[in-house]
Amino acid sequence: MLRGDINRIYVGEFTSIGDGTVIQTVASLPTGMNSDCIIQKNTVIHPNCTLTSCYIGKDVVIGA
């Protein structure tokens, strides 16, 4: 499930997102950094992961 109702979610090309994964954003981060969720190309996110307002580089594999 992608929840981009607060801030932007960008998913790069050739990215695979597993079943049951939640990708969401928050209104703001306490660090003052950008609270978008950016996932670069060629990324694999395994099932049942939760990602919140993060930056994921190219060619990354994220496990549950």
**Strand order in the largest sheet:** 1-4-7
The dominant shape is: globular
Task: Profile the largest sheet.
Answer: 3 strands, parallel
Using only CA atoms, what is the Rg? 11 Å
Seen as an oligomer or otherwise, the chain set is: single chain
Mean pLDDT across all residues, rounded?
Answer: 91
Structural class, by secondary structure, is mainly beta
Uncertain segments are: none
How helical, in percent, are the residues? under 10%
**Could you spell the SSE succession in H and E letters?**
EEEEEEEEE
Number of strands: 9
Number of helices: 0
Descriptors:
64 residues; mainly beta; three-stranded parallel β-sheet; 9 strands
Structure description:
0% of the residues lie in helices and 34% in strands. The chain has 64 residues and is mainly β. The strands form three sheets. A three-stranded parallel β-sheet has the order 1-4-7, with no helix packed on it. The two termini are 15 Å apart. The mean pLDDT is 91.
Brief synopsis:
With 64 residues, the protein is mainly beta. Helix content is 0%, strand content 34%.
Topology summary:
Elements: E1 2-3, E2 9-11, E3 16-17, E4 22-24, E5 37-39, E6 44-45, E7 50-52, E8 55-56, E9 61-62
